[in-house]
Amino acid sequence: MISGLDDSIVTISHSGSAVAEQYRILCARVDRLSREHGYKTIALTSSVKGEGKTLTSVNLAFSMAKDLGKHVLLVEADFRNTSLTRLINRPKSKGFLDLLSNGTGIESARQLYLNDRLGIVTAGKVTPEALKLFASERTKEIIQEARKDYDYVFFDLPPILATADANIIAEWIDGVILVVRAGETPRDIVRKALAGSTKVIGVVLNDVKTYSSYYYYYNTK
After folding, report:
1. Which of 21, 76, 78, 180, CA to CA, is 20 to 30 A from 45?
2. This prediction's pTM
3. Distance separating alpha carbons of residues 8 and 58, to the nearest angstrom
C-alpha cells in the first residue's frame, strides 16, 4: 500500500479485485498497441465531464509502472478540474503550470512512486494564464524532454468537447484515448468527440455492467 492514495486507485488499494484486473488488461492492450505503432506520449480525455478519464489515467499509469515495470510519467493537464491532485492526496507547490512558466525541468515538480518508476506531475497553481501557457512552445519542449526519459508519458486532459485544450496538445503527442461511460454518454456526443480528434487510437468503455468486465477497450486503428 502507498499512504495517501485514494481507495479508487484500485491497482494499488485493491490489486486483487476484478476491477484492478480489468485495468491490467487495459494496460497490456495499450502497451501492445503502443509497441506496434511506436506510441509513447498519450493523452486521455472524454467527450464530457464525469466519464472517469482521470481515474482511468491514474490507474493505467500505476499499472504500467507496477505490473509491467515501465518508467511512466503522468501529467495533470486538466486545469479546470484538478481531480488527480485530489486522488493522490499529495499537493505540491510546483506543478505542470510552474514548469511552463518558469522553465524548470520535470524533476523539480514530479512526485515519485513505485521505486521511482512512476512520476506524477500535478497541475500546480492554476492562474488565468493557464491556457496561454499550455498552448506555448514550452509544452512541446516538456513533451520532447519526457520522451527521452520515460517509456510512457500520459496526459490527463479536459473533456474534448468542453475545451480547446485537447486540440492544442494533439499535434505534439502520439495518440489520444477516449474514455466513455457506458449507458450514460449519448452516441451522438461520442461521435462528435471522435470526429474532433484525428489522433484517437482507442476507446475505453468505462463502468460496463457485466459479470466479468468493468472496462472494455478497443482500438480504432
Report:
1. 21
2. 0.91
3. 10
